[in-house]
Write a structure and sequence with these properties.
253 residues; alpha/beta; D-Maltodextrin-Binding Protein, domain 2; 2 domains; five-stranded mixed sheet; signal; ModA/WtpA; molybdenum; AvModA-like_subst-bd; Solute-binding_3/MltF_N
């Protein structure tokens, strides 16, 4: 009896040791803020289908890229600008054959739904009633850069520069409009919820294409699951969700 008890204890200790050594099946995905609504929905479906838990860390693409350079323990990087993924690739920080463009983003002019001010064109931002205009910081946020390019192409960048307030990322920019701290702003179509803001799409010829890229981080301990997430994103179910939130799927996907 004593021998049997010792055997059982040894088996349990060995099993517990194995569980402790096995890496947690959880993906940490660094994602651009414009993906907040779409990726939460995609993440829920991915978890149901695969059993792999997904945790998203949303922020500006440039700041997330810096964190990855400094060793942040992410498994996947979903950027709002392919340039940042390519820079990480040049530094040997991503799995090269996982890099791909998964969507094109769109921007537009937004005002709070209950604001009587009418702002439908970029030129309307010159109205004296528009005292503050929110955009994401163009130095590290791709949607902010696209907003700057649109304002420059419209010939009004210098005229509105003193009105600008900069969000750390596109979600932060949206918060300026929601709170009333900015009368208008240029935000991502993907963050617009019906009834929250009035939104006017900006012609995509006014700025460089917002090519959004994704890749697996080389230091990941969950490469198989990370690749599965990217595959899910690019399959029909993932693409339908992305389209639902206003993203354009690149041709050939």
């Amino acid at each position: 009896m004593r021998t049997l008890l010792l055997t059982v204890i040894c088996v349990l200790i060995t099993a517990c040791s194995r569980v402790e050594q096995e890496p947690s099946q959880e993906l940490k995905i660094a994602a651009a803020s414009d993906l907040t609504l779409a990726f939460h929905e995609i993440g829920q479906q991915f978890e149901k289908q695969t059993g792999t838990k997904v945790t998203f860390i949303f922020g500006s693409t440039g700041q997330l890229a810096e964190q990855i350079k400094n060793g942040a323990p992410f498994d996947v990087f979903a950027a709002a600008n392919v340039q940042y993924v390519d820079e990480l690739n040049d530094k040997g920080l991503i799995v090269p054959d996982t890099r791909q463009i998964y969507a094109l983003g769109r921007i537009g002019i937004a005002t709070k739904a209950d604001n009587p001010l009418v702002v439908q064109t970029l030129e309307d931002l010159l109205k004296p009633e528009v005292k503050k205009i929110a955009i994401a910081n163009p130095n590290h946020a791709p949607y902010g850069l696209a907003a700057k390019q649109a304002l420059e192409k419209a010939g009004i960048w210098e005229k509105v520069k003193n009105k600008l307030v900069y969000g750390k990322n596109i979600s932060d920019t949206f918060a300026y409009i929601e709170s009333g701290n900015a009368e208008a702003g240029i935000i991502a179509l993907s963050l617009v919820k019906k009834g929250e803001v009035r939104f006017q799409l900006i012609d995509d010829a006014m700025h460089e294409p917002i090519q959004q890229a994704i890749a697996v981080i080389k230091k990941t301990k969950h490469e198989k699951q990370a690749q599965e997430f990217i595959q899910f994103l690019n399959r029909s179910a993932g693409q339908q969700i992305m389209k639902k939130y206003g993203f354009v799927i690149p041709k050939g996907k």
